[in-house]
Amino acid sequence: MLADQLNAVSGCFDLAAQDAVYRAIFTRRDVRSHFLPDPIGDDVLARLLLAAHHAPSVGFMQPWNFIVIRDLERRERVRDLFFAARQQELPHIAEERRELYRKLKLEGICESPLNLVVTCDRGRSESSPLGRWHNPEMDLYSTVCAVQNFWLAARAEGVGVGWVSILDREALKQLLGIPDHVVPVAYLCVGHVSEFAEKPDLERHGWGRRLPLADLIMSEVFSGEGEAALKAVAAGISGSPVR
Ligand SMILES: Cc1cc2nc3c(=O)[nH]c(=O)nc-3n(C[C@H](O)[C@H](O)[C@H](O)COP(=O)(O)O)c2cc1C
Does 16 fall in a domain? Predict the structure, then answer.
């Protein structure tokens, strides 16, 4: 199917396919509310997991596993971990922002019909660490690539995904029986949703705003000035995702 959409000469997608890719990227949201109770079909979930499994990985290590959690009682115990972790995080938030922090909805653990933990098995390529000898954390980055693939494919399928990182990692590992050498990289709330917000929740609530892309571009070396033409183009397209 995808092959039909590939331009035979340059390998680029046709315009509709390109737009679909950018649409998934620019309309993807971190979702914590608006979850519908409808279950996600195994056909859909399998496709999303396949997208995750096709992420790039250092040394083709494929360090990930996917723990599917449907049991509500187990999810309630994870949500208790979230409540405890949020209390622990609160004093470290700037005082003037604590009231807003308290009001923010930062998880949808029980509202979503299923949770997914994407883990990284740090021992999977121990004997031949291609690409990891100098930078052993590359397996964690690879796992994050799998999470992003899942997130984008989910958006295309109308499935909402919310990442919950406000969790004590050790407590989560204990609760889910995750062995020592495996890191739970992402705890995701997954489900069909009634809507996808146009802007990030944290932007809508005045917590943060998207930084201007042009301000983030450097030339040749860190903090290097230059690339005026590129920055001007970047400034022109920011905020208008599709060509
Ligand atoms: C590594 C990571 C951890 C995150 N942890 C949380 C979290 O614990 N709770 C939450 O509400 N959102 C969490 N988010 C979502 C971000 O707040 C969100 O991506 C950001 O505000 C931009 O919004 P958008 O994803 O809708 O574009 C996390 C995102 C990432 C990438």
Answer: no
Residue nearest to atom 6 of ligand 1 (CA): 164
Q: What is the pLDDT of residue 9?
A: 58
Q: Phi and psi dihedrals of 167, rounded to 5? A: -150, 140
164, 110: one domain: yes
| Atom 23 in ligand 1: residue holding the nearest Cα | 200
Q: Confirm or reject: Cβ of 163 under 6 Å from ligand 1.
A: yes
Shared domain check, 60 and 135: yes
Three-state SS for 171-214 is: HHHHHHCCCCCEEEEEEEEEEEECCCCCCCHHHHCCCCCCCCHH
- Please, what is the end-to-end C-alpha distance for the chain in angstroms? 24
pLDDT per position as a tens digit, 113-149: 999 999 999 999 878 888 898 999 999 999 999 999 9
Ligand 1 atom having least distance to the Cα of 186: 1
Q: pTM of the entire structure?
A: 0.94
Residue range 52-72, pLDDT digits in tens:
999 999 999 999 999 999 999
To which H or E segment does residue 236 belong? Answer: helix 228-237
Q: Indicate if 79 and 113 belong to the same structural domain.
A: yes
Residue range(s) defining the domain that contains residue 107: 29-201
Among 2-6, 19-23, 128-132, the range scoring the smallest mean pLDDT is 2-6
Rounded to 5°, the CA angle 202-206-210 comes to 65
